[in-house]
Structures are given as C-alpha cells and as structure tokens.
Here is the input.
Amino acid sequence: MEADELRRLIDTRRDLHRHPELAYQERRTAGIVAERLAAAGYAVETGVSETGVVGTLEGGGGDGPTVLLRADMDALAIDEDTTHDFASTVPGVMHACGHDGHVAVGLAVAERLAGSRNEWAGTVRCVFQPAEEGKGGARRMVEAGVHEGAALALGLHLWLGLPSGVVGITAGPFMAGALVFRIVIHGRGGHGAIPHEAIDPIVAGSQVVSALQTIVSRELSPAEPAVISVGTFRAGDAANVIPERAVLEGTARAFDETTLRHLRRRIEEVAVRVSGAMGASAEVTFPQAEVPTVNDPAITDMVRETAEAVVGPDRMVVGSAARTMASEDFGAFLKHLPGCYFFVGARNREMGAVHPHHSPHFDICEEALPVAVAVLERAARRFLRAGAPRGSA
Ligand code: NI
Here is the structure.
C-alpha cells in the first residue's frame, strides 16, 4: 500500500476512534462515510435504518453481479482506559470492538474500487450499517432492502483472537447465533432466621443455574457445540433477609437455528419448572437474538484463495480453528444472500494490543488495516469479474 493511502487509512481509524458513537447515533461517522463515498463517485443514500449509509457504483466493464460489502460503524458504552493520543473524547463511549477500523477499511476499499472501476464489471454496493452491538442494525438494513438484487455479501472483523495480519476463515458455521435470556424468579420475602415462612428465590435461582447446565451436557450431542452461561445473578441486599425476587441474565450460543430454538424452549421450561418445584415462580424473556453467521462454501473457497495469495499460506487459520462462539449480526445478511465473513487478526503483544474485544484497554494493531483492505478489495474484484460461483445458495 502506498504511503499516503496508508496514512489516510490510519488517520481515518484514529479520527473515528476519537469520536465514537453508540448504536443509531452514528451521525458524525455516517457523515464522513457519505462524503468520502460521494467524492469517490458513488451514488450515496443516507439515513438508511436511521444512520446507515449505502454507496453504489457501477463498473465500467458492463453488466455483472452486485457485490455487497459491509462495515459496521457503532461503538460501545465503555469508558476507554488507554493512554493513546487518539483515545475517545466522549466519556463512557469507546470503539472497543474495532468497528472504527472496519469503517476505515470499508472506505479505503470503496475508494480503491472507484479508482479501478474501468477494470471491473457489475456493481459494488458498500453498506455501512449502524448498531451491530446487539441492537439489530443488520436486520434493520435487511428490512430496508439493502441486500436486494445483490449476488453475494462480504464482510470482515478485525480480530484479537489472531495475530496481526493472520486471516481466519471457514466454510459453513463461522460465528455462533446468540440468545440473551433474562429470568425473574418470584419468591416470598422474609427473615433469614425464619425460612419456613418465606419462599427463597436465591435457593430456587441457584437450582435453576445448576439445572441450566444440563441442557447442553445432557440434551445435545457432544459433537454439537453450544453453550449456556449465566452472567448475572442479582438478589437481596441484607445478610439476614430472604428477598422477594432474584434476577438472572445470561447468554446461549449455538451454530444452527434448530439448536438455538431448542435452547430457547428448554431455558424457559427449566427455569419455570425448577422454580415451580421450589415453590417459586419464574418469568423468562429473551431480549436479544442473533442468528448464526454461516459462510457459503463456494464463495468462502474463493475468498480463502484470495486471502492466501495476499498473506501467504502460513498466515492462514482455516476450518474449525477459525470458528468462534462469539456472535455477530452479519448473519442477518447471510440469511438472504450467500457470502463470506472472515477475520483479520489484529493482536500484537509488543504494542499491547492483547486485550479482548469490549475491554476498556482494547486496541488493534494498525498493521492489520492494510491487510484487511487488500484481502477485501481483491476478493470483491474477483467476484465483480466472475459473479457468485455456481451452487451458492
Ligand atoms: Ni464487533
């Protein structure tokens, strides 16, 4: 990558990092995206699903497929704890997942494709979506029809699970679908010394936590990855008082929708029936659900080949080693279009980019940015010539 293109890529990422915006509030970010896309010659639509931006450009080579490239724009409600001179200037808001890098990469790819438009056929549609972090941004963009008429969708995540510049990719299930569950257990409060006159929601809740562990271990095939984790258990505020209620929240993950439906049904049944057996009652809600991200085999094969040509075979992690139970809303596009989502590693021990996604210390190794640009642009160019491979669905 030329020095000035690289400078611009890093400057863009750092500028966005300084000015992070939460879901559906990505106005400054969307403004920058719209301006850069328009300057590069794209037809630009703004305000899609609130703050989304879609840029469309036809190649000079005539008819061909429409390739959708997606980047997510939102930051997180986290107080940044780094010493960067480009640290967040917004208290309590931080780009702690790398979406600042995704926007910078998306813009660089869009501009490269515009610069080479006479060399390819078809249409490139750059989708900058809001609200990836559990707020349904991808689903809303699909409801707005941004996928319609596209032959395939490509996207990537800068990933701290892999060393900087290493590409992680696999056909089939790549990232898990996720459910967030919330269980409210109603008991009867009382004095801790007189338990027989109370119904203890903490004891009932403890049994529920234990029983939930058996859904994955006893009801699913050991060959089928799934997980249920209870992340919060809130009840009571005095040592000698049995409280009225306990509230548990957690996440369930799996790679296919049938398993996710099973988890959903059984989490509810187990919570309600175990609580009932203890004399308490339970209400179960699922405030958030994400479908699995499942890659098309033929398209993924082509992206893998392209990535390997960019980074070299020893910088590839392929197959189940690349797969993660983390989730991502790109799956909402892949429910309607064949496509491929992949990781570009961004971990770098020497520069301290080792903290997990969503940590207040999170950082990416910026050397991953030009790698991501090269892989995504070359992959897009390949499909803009050839279209989606036969057999993709
Ligand atoms: Ni993310």
Q: What stands out?
A: The chain has a mean pLDDT of 96. The chain has two domains: 3-172+293-386, 177-290.
